[in-house]
Amino acid sequence: MAQIKKLQVQGIRSFGPEADDRQNIEFFSPLTLILGQNGCGKTTIIECLKYVTTGDVPPGSGRGQSFVHDPKMAREASVKGQVKLSFHGVGNTLKVISRSMEASQKLKNITIKTLDSTISTKNPHTGEQTQLSSKCADINAEMLNCLGVSRPILNYVIFCHQEDSNWPLEEGSKVKDKFDEIFNSAKYKNCLKNIKDVRKGEMEKVKIDKNNMEHYKSDKEYSDSKNKDLKRKKAELEKMEETVEKITKDLEPLREALSQVMEEEKGYSEIQKKLAEAQTSLDHCKKEIVVLENQISEVLPDTEDEEDLIRSRDGIEKETKAKEKELKELTKVVENTDNSLARGEKQVQKNAALIGKAVGEKDQHLKDVKQRENLAENAINELDLIDDAGDITEALKKEELKLKNQVKLLKAENKNKENTIEEEIDQLKSKKTGLEEGKKREQADMMGSKKEIAQLKRQLNDLEGAAEQLVKIKNDWEAGAKQLEMEKNKVDIKVLQEEISQEKVMVKELEVNERKLRDEYKSLEEKQSILQKIAHLTEDMESKESKLKKIMNKRNSDFIQLFDVVPDTKRLKVTWKDGQEIADKKLKELESDRKKVENELNAKTISKKDAKKSLEKKSSRKQHLEATVGDILGPDDDLEEEISSTQESLELSRKELAVKEAGKFTYREMIDRMKAMGKDVACPTCNRAFHAKHEAQELATELEDIIKSIPNKVKNLESKVKKLSARLEQLQKIRPEVHELKSIRKEVEDSASNLEELDRDMKKMREDLDEGEEDWNMTELNVSLYRQVGEDVQLADSLAREVAQLREKKEEIGLQVEGGGGRSLDVVRREDEEVGSKLRIARKNLEQCQETVNKQSGLINELEARQNRLTNRKLEIDGQQQQRANMVTKREELEGKVEKAGEEVKRCTRELEPIREQLEETENKKRKLMRDGEKMVECIVERERKLERFSGDIQRLDTVLSTYADGDKDEHLERLKKDKVDLEEKMSELKDEKRQTEERASKLKVEVSNQESRRRLFDDNLRLRDYKNKEGKYERTVRSQEKALDDMDWRKVEKKKNDLSIQYNKLSAEKSAKGGQMAEVVRSVKDMERELAQPKLKDAAAKYKEMAIKHKLRTKVAEDLNKYYIALDFAIMKYHKEKMKVVNKIVRELWRNTYRGNDIDYIEIKTTEDSEVSSGADKKKTYNYRVVMVKNDTEMDMRGRCSAGQKVLSSLIIRLALAETFSTNCGIIALDEPTTNLDRENIESLALALADIAIKRAAQKNFQLVVITHDEEFIEQLSRCDQIQHYQKVSRNARGLSEVRKMNVANLEQET
Predict the structure, then answer these.
(1) Do you find a cis peptide bond into 30, omega within 30 degrees of 0?
(2) Does the pTM exceed 0.85?
(3) Phi (first) and psi of residue 268, to 5 degrees
């Protein structure tokens, strides 16, 4: 078993970097005690032990920057730190390990460089020493082998740092990781991780296979459904062909029957034409009669003559114009009056606003007067003022001055009282301070005297038996002098030292040569291995590039067809995937568009056939109507305009004819009246007298001539009226044909344009179909090609990635190769072996000489030191014997001084108590006085604030009232009221004038409206009579034509034609629909057959079966891996639990022996139950490692519940248990400050428990318990186990550096 003997520290933390500062710490078995104050460097010893055994620097020190002694403290640019440990390894061989590191101070920080580390081993039989350097071996691994423990045991159990000492109470997962390391189950944990990763990869592949399987399954299902649809469509097509054939047979007899009916119908066309014309005119007349009867308010009786109605209508117009003129003048008068009223209304509003403002100001003035009176009264009542002069403002000012004087007097009085009390308080404080200082001084003197007394007692005890010691020392001194002389004459050290110097020079030269040769050899080896790696990588790259090139050459034309260029292999997969998605999407869109266009084309073809038939019928009817209408009406003439102009001309001619016929009698009457006048002849129309007689004769002659010319004019007018009437009758007769012709022309134009549009659309659709067919074929080819190249693309992408990785690796390795030739590897190896052989011989000689010198020098130094110690001890005892009497006297004086100081302390304590009470009473009195004074001042200040509020309000109101009095507001208000009355009278007059004018205008409007209604009444009655006459005429024509058709049995032929047409049209429509459906079904069948012939659907079933088998196999593999994972995890946890049973047994025993509280019976480490552990690789694992405390068989987590002391004690006990369980080859454990946060009772019990462990293990030579603490009592209690004679004391010297001294336990007991 391993055992540590001695530790040497230099240049680490507070240990000095110089050779003189080097400190040695000796370790004993079974117990090593290290005592020292806080900050003296005790924990550094643990850190050095951990560093020298594991190579790990303490946590929080970076790479060791704060671990090595600070160069700034040493005032050096760099500092070297060294730790050496002498220990016995597992084979009980003595070994020395040395680790060194150098800290250099740079501009901004400290850099650390690790120096060479060595392990020296001494053969116990031959005495030969061998060294193992970190340059040629792994020192850390070798050290762990020598100690016989793992790194986790050293880190977490044996040399656990104080900051990490409570790790058993951390989170469950962290505790689990540490236990895994302690149990050495990390490799099994890695195996779990590998199984989980492999299973994860398989599960990902399962997902991919499942997706592919679903894809192939959908293809298979789609293919099956398409085959079913294809069979169904073919069956439908056969049924449709049978139906169309049957319909074609049924149409033949109907077509023959319709031809016969059309032949029979030709004889009725002329009569039907006349009947249609008459019926159209009759319907028009009836419609107009209904409209007129609805809009005429009074239908005049037929007894009134038409000419009387015309004369009455013409007389109304003149009267209406005069009244309208008067109405316009009255409207202008009303507008002027409205403008005057608007201006007056604005003046009235403005006046009202000014009056309202003046009245408001007057009301506010009265309120302000009342408010001032109330304020003055409230001020007098609330402030108890006396207003003899009646001036409240003056009274307020006097009261304000009075209050200010009162405040000043009261503050001064309070200040005087406070000063008096403050003086009393200062006197009492001075007395109290004097007594307290005296008490402290006496207590300090008493403590110093007690310490001197204790020291004197220890010295007097040491002097007991000094005479016997003095004789023994003299005898030892004489024997030592003889031995020293003998050893000095034994060996010539100077000759040996010269020989050592020569050997050192030779060793140094050989080491330099060896180092150069090894560097050269290492460089050559590295180059050779690197070149071999590069060759292997190049071979792999060429192989994969060759495969990649074959694939790219194979698919070169396909890639150019798909992507226009051959894509880069890095982007090949992405480009292929994007292109495939786009092609699939485009193919679906093209199929959808093509179906849509074909459906539209079929529909438009049927529409075009129907439109052609309709256009032919309409064109035939149009030609017939144009021939009929063209004989009467020009092609560019409008019928209604022509009828209207003809009617106007006819009416004018009739009026002119009536006037001419009536003029013959009028002119004759005028001649007769002139003859009857005799000599006083005057104008028969205006009764104006003629100036000369011949004027009357000339007028009579002219009238006679006019009477003679009237018959010719009447005859011409009658001829003209007959022509216009005939023309009007012809125009009205062709009105139905003209209306029908207009509608048919429009329909023909619309039909022709529709046909042209249909042709254009169909042409465009066929072109689109042709283009779409090309696009569809091309896209379908691309989609098929994308699927064909898919596997090669996947393989090419994988190869490209592997080639890129190999190339990067090759470049990375190639950077390590430097240029240069030189010697071969064998030459360098032989030369290195020769130099190594010489170096070993030289080192052996040097070591032998050095060992002889060191051994002899050490022996001589040891003997000289012993002599010096004996001499010093002798002188010391002589001096102490002389001082004994003085020491006794001094002790008695000090004891008297202590007694006197104790009495003085008691006196000061007695006198202090009444002074404290008096001081507190005086301070309370001062505080009461200050509160009372502040209250009185506050009352006066409050009265002063209230007075200021009253004064300010009254001053404000006085200002407002004086402003109102200076403004003559009352007179201004009276003037405004007078102006208001004048404006209201003026407005009243204007309104009366406007009302009278509006009444007159209203009457005129009614009269004008009535006149217009009367005129329209006469016009409507005249038109109504005309339409009634035409209605009778057209009714007679319709009856005569219908009678002619009835005589010819026309209705029976018409009914037969209609029945046959309905049957024929119905069957034709059904045949057309079936034809369109058949075309659609045929196209669908072709599409389905073409789609099913594609490789995707053709091989869908086989691909689905293959992928389903792959998916099932991968699923089984993943399930098996999960089972392996669960089994291994269960085994690891079971091993943990078994080990935990052993650990918990020791923990329970140590807790019961150590803990003195009654709140916890024992503690133990709990692990997760088996059923909770093996949850499989899918779920995230949660570990529940926890330390529990048990009381009355009830478990509770210690984490978060226990005190700081319980936490320290539990962690310490767990470490002790782990050390006893897992450190069978290394019985060492170091406890750093184990009493932290423990009370005295638990400290004593811990000391007893550790002492008990030391006693029990005393027989075990290599058991070592290292306890580092600052508690002297704890050290003293541990030292009572009779297993130790010395302890190590750590302290700081005068330079602040740590030093370690070996002390006798007996001195510790005396000091305690």
Answers:
(1) yes
(2) no
(3) -95, 0
